[in-house]
Write a structure and sequence with these properties.
With 391 residues, the protein is an alpha/beta fold. It is built from 15 helices and 7 strands. Helices cover 40% and strands 8% of the residues. Strands 1-2-3-4-5-6-7 form a 7-stranded parallel β-sheet, sandwiched between helices. α5 links the parallel β2 and β3.
């Protein structure tokens, strides 16, 4: 029996697919002219026929294809052209796709846009890019309260970050995606970022880490003096390399360790954290290692002595994680408890799978997940993460 029958279901991970000139529309001319190509340039000639096909369908030239995409949202082979997917670029279609999926709300992330400015040497471009992307995401989600926009915030300049964050909050951004690596020689938990955490906590807007937040496999590890890992296929926008996947969580674990050990989550007990499209197989061991670090070395560190609860308990209280549909979510649930994991589809990215609902259901059935555990996974953990229905 389907888990989602008579149940509210929220989707913690989806994406819009950027088109040529989309981000520039929301930026000043000076900033737009200095955007970088990004991890995959949208100007690549190989993308011309893919975008042309999508534009033709949106213009109504292929109603049969449109209906086929609607009939099989996740599994239609045409979704490999991500611009073609139903609701990938058009916000009215995206709203209808929620009806077809049967989800009550959906977080919407950008795909490539942040890579066009986040590492720019000119901070005017960095923060102009943040503001442009936040305007763009808010606009895409503006016609449907079920579409929840994900914003982006650089903390390379803490003071400018506060200004940019205030604008994002004013726009209605529902969670803020940040980098997980140390920036400008500062730990992620540096006290200069406390105003950011305080603003987010007060607004009940969580901070979110997503794939792309931190460095994966360093480039030196790709140098084998011979054939290297396969390059990503620009047509599906996937930039994760084979060597990246086993270590994608390393930067996230470093970030979490700093945020817990240096007392950020202690000082900001209502700050929620989302970990999205970063997997969760690693999470049980990480919780044990976080606790072990305190139990073995806590007597030597005054900050660790000041923690009021175990590190794993901060995660239970404040961190929510979206597992991959390819992972054994039932096993993870049994090892981390009911309060952390969230359902997600990664729509319309093909790595989200042809049957995300079924994949999660089968894994959870294998461990005989209880009604309470299912309700937490599909509904309540997401609502807690985003402050939905909060008093």
């Amino acid at each position: 029996m389907s888990h989602v029958t008579d149940r509210t279901v929220h989707d913690a991970d989806s994406h819009l697919i950027e088109t040529r000139g989309w981000l520039e529309t929301y930026a000043s001319r000076d900033v737009a002219e200095r955007f970088l190509p990004g991890v995959i340039s949208l100007d690549l000639p190989i993308l011309d026929p893919l975008m042309a096909q999508a534009e033709s369908r949106l213009a109504g030239d292929d109603p049969e294809l449109t209906q086929a995409l609607k009939d099989k949202l996740f599994g239609h082979k045409g979704k490999l052209n991500q611009w073609l997917a139903y609701g990938a670029t058009d916000k009215a279609e995206r709203s209808e796709s929620l009806d077809l999926m049967g989800v009550a709300s959906q977080l919407v992330f950008p795909t490539l846009a942040a890579s066009r400015f986040s590492r720019h040497e000119d901070l005017d471009v960095v923060y102009g890019g943040c503001d442009a992307l936040n305007r763009a995401m808010a606009d895409f989600c503006s016609d449907d309260p079920r579409l929840l926009p994900v914003g982006y915030l650089s903390h390379r300049d803490p003071e400018r970050a506060v200004t940019s964050l205030q604008m994002a909050l004013d726009l209605g951004i529902r969670t803020v995606w940040i980098a997980s690596d140390a920036v400008e020689g500062r730990a992620p938990s540096h006290v200069c970022y406390d105003p950011i955490w305080a603003m987010l906590e007060e607004a009940r807007v969580p901070v979110t880490l997503h794939i792309g937040s931190g460095q994966n496999m360093p480039s030196a590890y790709m140098n084998v003096d011979g054939p290297n890992d396969a390059k990503p296929n620009p047509s599906n926008l996937e930039t994760t390399r084979p060597k990246d996947l086993p270590v994608v969580h390393h930067s996230i674990e470093r970030w979490l360790t700093c945020m817990i050990y240096d007392g950020v989550l202690e000082r900001h007990p209502n700050l929620k954290v989302g970990l999205v499209e970063l997997g969760a197989n690693w999470l049980p061991a990480s919780l044990m290692n976080l606790d072990m670090g305190v139990s073995l070395l806590g007597k030597f560190d005054e900050k660790l002595k000041a923690l009021s609860i175990k590190p794993s308990e901060y995660v239970q209280r404040q961190v929510r994680v979206a597992p991959l549909h390819t992972e054994d979510t039932g096993w993870i649930l049994r090892n981390v408890g009911k309060d952390i994991l969230m359902f997600n589809t990664d729509y319309p990215h093909p790595e989200g799978g042809r049957d995300p609902f079924g994949d999660f259901e089968r894994s959870l059935d294998n461990v005989a997940a209880t009604e309470e555990e299912l309700d937490r996974f599909y509904t309540k953990n997401y609502e807690d993460y985003l402050g939905i229905n909060a008093a």
